[in-house]
Amino acid sequence: MSQPVTSNPFIIMLINMTVVFLVLIALGLVIKLIHYLDPTKPKVKQESAAPAVVPDPSPAAPAAEEGISPEVVAVIAAALSSYGYGPEQIHAIRPLSRDGWKNSGRVPFSNPF
Questions:
Q1: pTM
Q2: Where is the chain membrane-spanning (predicted)?
């Protein structure tokens, strides 16, 4: 067996860190190359500069109560259509009951996550 080149731990640490970072840089370059040559990436088409047309939400989103203004219905329908929902998927718009702090101690906690 041969003798170790060095027994200084700082030089060994520098050599190991250099090797690790060179491997990380090489992996980063490979990932960038894969993203550049990705055949599954959809091709970007030139679209015309026509403004987006917002569909008329009044027949699509009937208001369940008379207290909801048509402007609020239009805003809610436009927001839902931006998420990809069609007019046939919006059945009703109902406001939530707001009890304020009245029942906050009685309602069980539900984790949103």
A1: 0.35
A2: 12-34
